[in-house]
Each structure stands twice: as structure tokens, then as C-alpha cells.
Design a protein that fits this description.
Strand content: 25-35%
CATH topology of the largest domain: Rossmann fold
Radius of gyration: 21 Å
Shape: globular
CATH class of the largest domain: Alpha Beta
Distance between the termini: 37 Å
CATH architecture of the largest domain: 3-Layer(aba) Sandwich
Structural class: alpha/beta
Helix content: 10-25%
CATH superfamily of the largest domain: Nucleotide-binding domain of ferredoxin-NADP reductase (FNR) module
Number of strands: 18
């Protein structure tokens, strides 16, 4: 197949821009590689942010049942950019969002699996090495192409960008999941995967004078650890309150990572909380109980004066947003998260 047959030309109506979409790429990710303001969040078919209209041409859907596209969207001819692969040159239309222009151009690199470190009974940190700089913003995520798994899987980086090409991803093991089986059961040291990234808009902001609050649950700890590390490495003297919620004591982790950072205990404060004390029948847990967003509201004063980063299960994120925006009138511009379902 010739180069001209392997790429498709995509023209965007309304912004006088065109870009090439390589074979195997999606309309969304090719647009982001070209620096276009294509709106997106999860990049995996769930949130629906990357909907577009196909005006001319032909595309195939990689996931026709993707939950991010409702029946009413389909009736209107909408498609998902992250699940659409062009079969011909095409013309599309989407609602441009300048905040989605990538600050770091995403690209695909080959990576070698080097280590897996357990964090809890079902959470582990995976380390991969590439032959080039790991260039991302703290808080962003990448897509992994795993052997034997259909589709890509999104995971957040927990480390900082580095010239050594190290990518550390904290991943939860979901029993029965194809991605989990590939990572936790079949992946061996030395195996190679492909990493596509970085993506995500909930990255660490360096232009704020507000104290920082990170609220996380589950594998949402990964981008929050990355943000805490970036905060510790930056000047300014701002405080960072790190709230982490789990169901029971065995789900709680993160303190040992934060303790290594300068300013821990003073500028960086760790607040673990469990929501189901009944999972601790021996009564070993001595910390607070309840939902993690409720613990944040109890401990913080002047909630509207902070900068927030959220990551975790959708019900946790939704409840935190309601608490911040509706109950405490926090401006939405001060809240950063990427929606995953």
C-alpha cells in the first residue's frame, strides 16, 4: 500500500484546517497530533465529548456500542472522534475548544516493561522504558496497546516527565477484565507494548496562587501523585492537601510515596478515609470514615479559594463536583479532571 493510500486527508469545516490521518489512527487522535482544538476527555468512547458530524466521506466505528454516543446522537448523524477511523478523505465538523489544543504533542512509542510494584491488594505500579524522553504534563494519561487486547486502555502517569524515558502507571486489577488479565497475568519483564500519549486536560497548573487540593480514589491516585510530585518540585510555598478514599483499610495507599517529597507534613498533607468501616471487623482503622469528598469539606475552610484536581471512580468525581460547585460555589475554572466511565 502506498503512502497516499495509507493516509486520509481530513478537512475541518469552519476552521479552514486540514490534517492527515494515518492508517490505524482515529479522527480525534490524528487531529490532536496536528494541534487542532478537537474537544475530548476520556479518549476511549465513554464520555461523548469528542462527538463530531461527518459531512463527506466514509468512516468505520471501532466500537459501535460505545456508551458515549446516545441513540439521539446517532439519529443526528453524530460520531465519536476517538472511535472513528476514516476509510476515505473526509470533511467533518466539530465544536472547537481552544483549551484542548495539546501542549504536548501525543505520539506513539514502543516501550519495554521493566517492573511491577504492588501498592494494595488490587493496585500496582507498572514501569515501562522507551528509547526517548518521556514528555508529558503531570496529571496526564496515556493509551496502552496491549498484546491480545482489542482496543486501547487509558492509564495515568504517576511519575514526572524525564529524559530517561520512564513511564510509571498505577493500574487497578479488575477481575475478568481483558486489560487487567494482560497486565497482571501475562505481561513479563522485557515484553514490549505501545504507548500513545500524552493526553488529558487535568494537568498541573503552574500559574495559580491558590493552595492545591487533590481528591482521589482507586487508580485515580496516579495522576494525583504526579501532581504532588510536580508541586513539591516547584517553588512558591503553596500547600497541597491530598485526600484519598477507599472502601476499606486494604484499599488505602499513597502515604509512602508522598512521604519522600520535600515539605511532607507541612506543605503537603495526606488525608486517607474509608467509606465502609464494616470491612475492618477487627477495628484496626483509626482514621476518618465516610466519603472522601465529605472529608475534604470537613477539613478545609474557604473551599472556593483552592485549586482542585480530581481523579477516581465516576460516582466519586460526580459527588465531589456537586459538593464543590453547587454547595460551596467553587468556580468551575478552578476544578480540573478528565471524565472516565
Amino acid at each position: 500500500m502506498s503512502d497516499s493510500e495509507e493516509t486520509r486527508r481530513i478537512r475541518v469545516e469552519g476552521c479552514e484546517r486540514s490534517y492527515d490521518c494515518a492508517a490505524g489512527d482515529t479522527i480525534l487522535r490524528a487531529a490532536l497530533r496536528a494541534g487542532l482544538p478537537f474537544p475530548y476527555e476520556c479518549n476511549s468512547g465513554s464520555c461523548g465529548t469528542c462527538k463530531f458530524e461527518l459531512l463527506e466521506g466514509e468512516v468505520e466505528s471501532l466500537w459501535p456500542e460505545a456508551p458515549g454516543l446516545k441513540e439521539r446522537d446517532k439519529r443526528k448523524g453524530k460520531r465519536l472522534g476517538c472511535q472513528s477511523r476514516p476509510l476515505s478523505d473526509s470533511v467533518i465538523r466539530f465544536r472547537a475548544d481552544e483549551s484542548c489544543i495539546p501542549r504536548k504533542t501525543p505520539k506513539v512509542v514502543e516501550a519495554r516493561f521493566t517492573d511491577r510494584r504492588p501498592m494494595t491488594h488490587d493496585l500496582a505500579e507498572f514501569e515501562f522504558h522507551t528509547g526517548e524522553t518521556a514528555d508529558f504534563l503531570p496529571g496526564q494519561y496515556a493509551l496502552l496497546e496491549l498484546p491480545g487486547v482489542t482496543g486501547l486502555r487509558a492509564f495515568s502517569m504517576s511519575n514526572l516527565p524525564n529524559p530517561e524515558g520512564v513511564w510509571q502507571l498505577q493500574i487497578k486489577n479488575f477481575p475478568g477484565g481483558a486489560g487487567s488479565a494482560a497486565l497482571f497475568e501475562r505481561l513479563k519483564v522485557g515484553d514490549r507494548v505501545r504507548i500513545d500519549g500524552p493526553y488529558g486536560l487535568a494537568y498541573f497548573r503552574t500559574d495559580t496562587e491558590r493552595d492545591i487540593v487533590c481528591i482521589a480514589g482507586g487508580s485515580g491516585i496516579a495522576p494525583m501523585i504526579s501532581i504532588a510530585r510536580a508541586h513539591a518540585a516547584s517553588p512558591g510555598g503553596l500547600t497541597l492537601d491530598f485526600f484519598y478514599g477507599g472502601r476499606g483499610p486494604e484499599d488505602i495507599c499513597g502515604r509512602e510515596l508522598l512521604e519522600t517529597l520535600p515539605g511532607f507534613g507541612e506543605l503537603i498533607r495526606y488525608h486517607p478515609v474509608i467509606s465502609m468501616p464494616e470491612l475492618d471487623p477487627e477495628g484496626r482503622w483509626r482514621g476518618p470514615t465516610g466519603f472522601v469528598h465529605e472529608e475534604a469539606a470537613r477539613r478545609l475552610s474557604d473551599l472556593a479559594d483552592h485549586e482542585y484536581y480530581l481523579a477516581g471512580p465516576p460516582p466519586m468525581v460526580d459527588a465531589t463536583l456537586k459538593m464543590l460547585v453547587i454547595e460551596h460555589k467553587v468556580p468551575v475554572a478552578q476544578i480540573h479532571y478528565d471524565r472516565f466511565y
